[in-house]
Amino acid sequence: MNATEVEIVEIPEITTGQDSLMDLHSVLNLLNVIHGELTVLGFELADDSELLSAGLTRCEDMKSDLMDPEASLRHVESLPEIKAAIDAVVTAAVSNYPEKADSPSVQESIGNIAAVFRIFEVRAREILARKKEPGKWVEMSIIDIQADFQAVFSAMEKHSHGRYRILCNLAMQEPNDYFVDFAVQSENGRSSVSVPLVFKDVMRDLIANARKYSPLGASIIVGLYETADSLKFVVQDTGRGIPASEIKRVFEYGQRGSNVEGVRTMGGGFGLTKAFYITKQFGGRFWIKSEVDQGTRIRIELPRPS
Q1: 8 Å CB contact between 217 and 203
Q2: If we measure between CA atoms, which residue out of 207, 226, 221 comes closest to residue 141?
Q3: 254 or 89: whose pLDDT is higher?
Q4: Are 116 and 79 in contact (CB under 8 A)?
Q5: Cα angle: 195, vertex 211, 277; to 5 degrees
Q6: How far is 54 from 227, CA to CA, in rounded Å?
Q7: Dihedral of the alpha carbons of 262, 239, 35, 51, in degrees to the nearest 10
Q8: Do the bridges between strand 295-303 and strand 285-291 make them parallel or antiparallel, or are there none, so unpaired?
C-alpha cells in the first residue's frame, strides 16, 4: 500500500441524538441482525416475511428509541423481558408449522437468534457498567479479550448462513473464509491488559468494517499492544479501500465511501465517527492509511491514565 498515512484531528460536531445512537452502535447492529433472522424465519416457515411481526415491531421500536438516551437505556435494562417476548413469538410461530420445525434452515435461524441474544446480554452488561463510570479503564485477561472476539466472529459467521467462515488459523482457510490474525500483548509480558470498556466497541466496529469491506478469502490483521504509557490498536485489511479525496469525509456521521454504496450493511454508517470520538474522549490520536482496491490500515493510540 503506497498511500500516505493521515492523522484525523477534527470532524464535524454531532447532535445529542446522534451521540446516543453512536454510543449504542453495537445495539443497533444486533437489533438489525435479530430483525433479519426473524424475517428469514418467517420465509422459512410460511414464505411470509411478516409472520413474526410482533418480534419485528419490537426490534423496530427499540431502534427508533436509540437516539433517546433515557429510552434506550430503559430498553437495555429490560433486555431479559425483551428476549423472553421475542422467544415467545418465535416459539408460537414454529409451533404453528410443526412439519417445518425441525428443518435445518429453521433450526439455524433459531440458533442464530439465540447466539445474538447471548452477545446482546454481554453488551448490555458493558453498557450499564460504563454508564456508571464512563471513563473507566478495566483490567481484562488476554484470553478473555480473544474469547470475546471469537464469539463475535462466530455470530458473524452464523448470520452469513454459510456464505463464509472467520478463522484464526491460516492452515484451515478455504477460498471463501476470512482469516483474522488477532494478537494481544503487553509490553511487560503480563497476561492481561487495561482498556477503556467502551473501547471494546471501537475494536469490534473496526474489525467488522474490515471484514465487511474485504472480499471473501481476505486476511485481516489486528493488534492490541499495551505499554507502560499507552494502549495501541491497529487493524489492517486488504479490502476496497477509500478514495483519497474522501478519507476525511467518511469520518462524518452517516457517511460512507462512494465505492461501497452497494455493500449490504447492518450498521448506520458511523463506525469511524464513533471510533474517532472515543479516541479523542480518552486523549488519544487516530491515523488512517487507505488506497482503493488495496485496503485500509487504522492506527489508534491512547495514553494510559497516570
Answers
A1: no
A2: 226
A3: 89
A4: no
A5: 40
A6: 49
A7: 60
A8: antiparallel
